[in-house]
Amino acid sequence: MKTDAKSLPNLKEAANRTKSPIQITSAKSKPSDALKSWAKGRKYCIYTYGCQANVRDSEYLRGYFENIGLTETEEGTEADITIFNTCAIRENAETKIYGELGRMKQPSQNNPDMIVGICGCMMQEEKPLNFIREHFPYVNLIFGTHNIDDIYPLMNEIIERKNRVISVKSIEGDVIEDMPSKRFEKYKAFVNIMYGCDKFCTYCIVPYTRGKQRSRKVEDIVKEVEELKAKGYKEVTLLGQNVNAYGKDFESPITFDVLLEKVAQTGIDRVRFMTSHPFDFQERVFEVMGNYSNIMPALHLPLQSGSSEMLKKMNRRYDRNIYLDLVQKLRKHVPDVNLTTDIIVGFPNETEEQFEETLSLVREVVYDSAFTFIFSPRPGTPAARMKDETPAEVKKARFLRLKELIDEQATYTASKFVGQIVEVLFDTVSKKDKTKISGYERHGRLVHVDGDESLIGQIKKVKITSSRTYSLMGEIIDDWRRSSKSWSN
Ligand code: SAH
Ligand code: SF4
Ligand code: F3S
Fold first, then answer.
1. Residues 33, 40 contacting (CB under 8 angstroms)
2. Which of 84, 209, 371, 373 for a ligand 3 pocket mutation test, highest count of atoms within 8 Å of Cβ?
3. Average pLDDT for residues 280-297, to the nearest whole number?
4. Which residue, by CA, sits nearest to atom 1 of ligand 3?
5. Ligand 2, closest atom to CA 198?
6. Mean pLDDT over each residue of the chain, to the nearest integer
């Protein structure tokens, strides 16, 4: 098969930050007649890895596919076009993809028309792209995070010319406003408020794979939320790699608190946002959170390390005291806030004392839960070039100590919900038992109750009866002055 390598990634180039202003444009790609007739009666499947940015990108791809008449299947081996939307954040995110791709070998041989595609952050890196190019000849479509809107012409090339196509732009493009999209959920929606990241934390690949920071206009975001509300959506999560830098890239900059307030004023039932970066944090965000009951009392505030020296090496732009001060201000404005975080253990040459500083900060703050990671060197990032003499077993042991502390805190903070009445937006029926349903309460805790699918999309009051580390169990009450027992009698 001939390969048409239209463009290949280059991580060095991707680190460039141009001053040129970002244009807001419309989706350009139109399906050809040949593509539309190919799609008739055929199926697509998308496997999504990584963060919410990828989930949203997969929703765009679903929109493009459904618009030409493809129907979705959950099994990639049965589809005519199967896409792997990949993540590059840690090495294990990448290695698992190779095994998954292997499953497509046989089906692609049985169905010579099959398109096996791979996209997402991993394809923005030279090494994995070349590895796939060499070792997986049946992967015939490779594209990146900046050219989702090219999907139709790329598919066309495979269908009409039987070419293998590789098209990965290193430099971000414009903000495209009206890409088609088919969302995964009916009541909760992710809304991008910005793309890319300019922070360049030394361990992180995202600024290379997602390009420079580009904020969407306030009007476009608010319009999207209003449309979602009109369609019956109950919850939006505003998405950005660091939402506190929202609007800094505008010619007349605005700040995130302004946007957050406007979104809350749409009156949608629930507003969440992620991820916040402690740098760029405006205290006014806390005030806005405290002032609007439809902004959920939850904040994900990545710490990464409790040691100021480590934070400096990570280029995080805050230190231990600034972080602690922020937490104090947050709790002043939103006393019942659910505080969660991300922590990296084993950054190059982290000492025992520096690790202990992370433990002591965690003890001081008390988190509701946390994602903890062992540092994974990402080729092309500054931290991957740093000498690192800490043995892997030491890192693993630290990771386990931290995990134990976090689990202890999560168990304790969950137990405080027992006896309380919470509001749950139900979204999932248990796969194993159709009489069990779950959803999230305002703070973001997962709650399970007895109930059926008629509750999906509804917000109900639930009395919490017991707790586990990462979930709560309860009973629905129609009137919280009566106990659930008398209600069910
Ligand atoms: N933009 C978000 C985080 C996105 S990545 C923020 O700045 O908070 C999610 C988390 O993955 C990070 O917070 C970090 O804890 C972790 N992470 C990122 N790169 C990593 C690496 N190279 N090794 C281990 N963990 C990493
Ligand atoms: Fe990565 Fe830092 Fe940007 Fe988050 S803020 S995406 S950790 S570079
Ligand atoms: Fe992964 Fe890319 Fe998100 S690297 S975490 S999918 S921005």
1. no
2. 209
3. 95
4. 87
5. 3
6. 95
